[in-house]
Amino acid sequence: MLPQSPLPDVEPPRDCPLCPRLVAFRHQCRAEFPDWWNAPVSAFGDPQATIAIIGLAPGKHGANRTGRPFTGDFAGTLLYETLAKFGLTTGAYDARIDDGFALRGAIILNSVKCLPPQNKPTPEEIRTCRPFLEAAVARLPNASVFVALGQIAHQSAVRALGGHLPSAKFGHLAEHAMPGGRVLIDSYHCSRYNQNTGRLTRGMFEAVFERANAVSRAG
């Protein structure tokens, strides 16, 4: 079973050539793990979503392995359990793309589509991939609330939404008015590191989506 994008016309090709360092790392992963996805990771979720979640980039043992955002890694468990709590999912998440799990009213996009070494894309790679994010955002007619997971996602989201970074500073639960009436809400990333160090607790993360739900319904 191959992952299917809800926004197929704005996805990069499987062998996207735009970032030489990421291409080289992709080829290295394909040689080492030939059964993995090892390609740009598409959006996942509901194209009629009112809430759009913007992550950083695929995780090596998560999305880069499975082909679906946050699927098969530590961060995905908290994310999908939280989305389920707020009625934004159907089915049961089982960390594999054939688990029948789906999003309802929500969609996940990434700032960078390809796996970066050490989970750290360069500023140039983030800029190069931004047109894919901008195109995806433009295809979401009902998305009124965007949730940025981490500072890099925040910066990409602000730019993709036409906002201005100096007046939109990142902070957990910070809320920013974007052009066209859209709202951006920030969260610390649900990474293993942030959870294990206590920088992000389950309660803190749930507060973000409680607020996102409230804003989307009010709009």
Topology, pairings included?
Layout: H1 20-32, E1 44-45, E2 51-55, H2 63-66, H3 74-85, E3 89-90, E4 102-103, E5 106-110, H4 123-138, E6 145-149, H5 151-160, E7 175-177, E8 183-187, H6 192-197, H7 202-218
Parallel strand pairs: 2-5, 2-6, 6-8
Antiparallel strand pairs: 1-5, 3-4, 7-8
Brief write-up:
By secondary structure, the protein is of the alpha/beta class.
Low-confidence stretches: none
- Strands of the widest sheet, in order across it, are 1-5-2-6-8-7
Name the beta content range: 5-15%
N-to-C SSE string, H for helix and E for strand: HEEHHEEEHEHEEHH
Average pLDDT rating: 97
Indicate the percent of residues in helices: 25-40%
Q: How would a textbook summarize the main sheet?
A: 6 strands, mixed
- What is the terminal-to-terminal distance? 37 Å
State Rg: 16 Å
Number of helices: 7
How many β-strand runs? 8
Instruction: Identify the overall geometry.
Output: globular
Which key features would you list for this structure?
single chain; 219 residues; alpha/beta; six-stranded mixed β-sheet; two-stranded antiparallel sheet; 8 strands; 13% strand
